[in-house]
Design brief:
The protein has seven helices and ten strands. The chain has about 290 residues and is an alpha/beta fold. A hairpin with a 2-residue loop joins β2 and β3. The longest helix has 26 residues.
Amino acid sequence: MKFSKGKNMKKTTFIKALAVSAVAFAVSACGNLSDVSKDGTTDNPVFPKIEKSVFNHDGSQFGSWVNWDNVRQIERGMNKDQIYNLIGRPHFSEGLYGVREWDFVFNYRENGQHKVCQYKVLFDKNMNVGEQWWLPNGCGGLAPYQLSADTLFDFDKDTLTAQGKQVIQDLAAELKGNNAKNIKVVGYTDRLGSVEYNLDLSQRRASTVKSALEQNGVTAAIQTEGKGKADQVKACEGLKGKAEKDCLRPNRRVVVHADGTKAVMENTREAGHDGPVRVREYQNDAQKTSWSK
């Protein structure tokens, strides 16, 4: 059977197109290990083997040393460029197009111990962030709790308000539920007043929070420290009177650090949604109060 030159060229072109499509499909498919729904979710996350990471593949370590503050900013609805800007490119061969999951290997230290965990971001049909998965579940779960002193205390006082008591009660329940250990309560003030007075006030407030946590059943060891006007987070230059006092509110805070939150058994290799919890700050407005995560 003979083919004309034109037919032969069409046949060759067709075969090449099929081959390119097959390769592209295979490359794309290799980037999607899990069965990802159109909403960016999965019932069975599949993690690649760490040694398959192509990020920093020279040397004895795989993956990157993670900046947890950047990871904590990731949330549903972000796009790939925003993820890339926060934590860099994915650490595995993710394919060329249609990829709806990115995988990372993170190195970090917890209580002086070098640990490694895997992080997976799933994307919905619009390539926005859907679910986030961690292996092991609870990886890097240490984060401080930031409490507004204006919510806990009346201005220039060290006795908890009624609302402040509820805040501490909720915090105590969360700390107990997360098996928190080695708790440290640090008090801060704004820059108004003398150094000595603010150091004393911040220490008294930290001690008040410690006592309230213990009264609400927290049995872990709790240290306290008052830092006064150190580590100001907002300057508010050029303001006076009530405007200055209101502007300086973020500086009046109590920060609770707790090691061991989201405790994970060392030998556990179960995946889950519990990663490094975002810094929580108690929000106060006239209509509602809630933990923001």
